[in-house]
Amino acid sequence: MSDITPDHNALRAAMHDVRTEVGKAVVGQDGAITGLLVALLARGHVLLEGVPGVAKTLLVRSFSRALGLDTHRVQFTPDLMPGDVTGSLIYNARDGEFDFREGPVFTNVLLADEINRTPPKTQSSLLEAMEERQVSADGVTRPLPDPFLVAATQNPIEHEGTYELPEAQLDRFLLKLLIDVPERDAEIDVLRRHAAGFSPRELEDLVPVVDAERIRAAQRAAASVGVSDDLLGYIVDLARATRESPSIQLGASPRAATALLATAKAWAWLGGYPAITPDHVQTMLAPTWRHRLRLRPEAEFEGVTVDAVIASVVQQTRVPL
Predict the structure, then answer these.
(1) Long-range contacts of 211-215 (CB under 8 A, 24+ apart)
(2) Which tens digit of pLDDT belongs to each residue from 7-55?
(3) Cβ(108)–Cβ(145) below 8 Å
(4) Which of 30, 96, 161, 279 sits between 20 and 30 A of 287, alpha carbons compared?
(5) The CATH number of the domain covering residues in 225-316
(6) DSSP alpha helices (H): ranges in 245-296?
(7) Do 37 and 166 meet the contact criterion of CB atoms below 8 Å apart?
(8) Is 91 a residue whose pLDDT tops 90?
């Protein structure tokens, strides 16, 4: 069946329905829900960082259920092997040949829980899948389903028994979303729902509001959002400013600039804009670049944060009229 091509307003309404549906299970995380939508529209992946108990896993499970997509969860542990993620060759005694058994990465939404708990060898097994949307094994390349999104979680305060993600791995994530403890009223609402019988392990009340074809159509629609040469220059100027910042050891790369363009387009499309504006770029700047910039050790020692540097860069860079 070919992809459907409804009008942009209908597609946009469907994406907003996803946000509403996820909100039935996840309270006080509207920004993170929107971030997942932006990543999906821009065909990217998401790194969710937050302390335990702030609904990171529930967020991804609810999101995939509202999308009506196949989803797999992998609990990353120190003894997890690459084949446990991508798949492996299994000897078939009946035929006397090796057959490839697909790993959990062969899905639409892969929840990589506590990704920093597994060694770099297993972390790197996701590189080809995330970048090329395929898995190569025994000289054969196998495509992954479309759409395909990796949502990985990690705990920012626990370091014992963890393996920090290298720059090459971090760069594969389009967005890094910080999941904070909800506001007081939202936290009361969480307790009220649990008191009424809500269980995060049971999401039967959530119904799919879109499907794969509509998602692919929405991705094409978001990619069609216009951008002027002035806005392209603005993005490049922001990237170059990070490279010149005295607090930054590793600035934004050209890949980071193209990622910002993609997320700004997705955010503009969700808002009904035909072209991106400086506001769209500035809104998506921190979540798109915070994991791609590396502070100098002396700046870290002084308590400087990447988000603070990004805010400073925005203030110092001329905004096109």
Answers:
(1) 211/67, 211/68, 212/68, 212/69, 212/108, 212/146, 212/147, 213/1, 213/3, 213/4, 214/4, 214/6, 214/11, 214/14, 215/40, 215/67, 215/69, 215/147
(2) 889 999 999 999 999 998 898 899 999 999 999 999 999 999 998 888 8
(3) yes
(4) 161
(5) 1.10.8.80
(6) 254-270, 278-289
(7) no
(8) no
pLDDT of 157-170, one tens digit each? Answer: 766 768 888 888 89
3-state secondary structure of 48: strand
Q: CA 276, CA 231: separation in Å to the nearest integer?
A: 8
Question: Any residues with CB less than 8 A from the CB of 165 and at least 6 apart, and which?
Answer: 47, 115, 116, 123, 154
What are 210's two structure tokens? 């879109």
- Assign residue 128 a region (left: φ > 0; alpha: ψ between -120 and 50; beta: otherwise): alpha
* Cα atoms found within 13 Å of the Cα of residue 200, Cβ hemisphere only: 15
Mean pLDDT across the stretch 240-250? 94
- Going from N- to C-terminal start, the domains of the chain cover 8-218, 225-316
Q: Is the pLDDT of residue 194 over 60?
A: yes
According to CATH, what is the number of the domain 8-218? 3.40.50.300
pTM of the model: 0.91
Tokens of residue 318, six digits: 């001329």
Distance of CA 237 to the CA centre of its chain: 25
pLDDT confidence of 1, banded at 50, 70, 90? very low
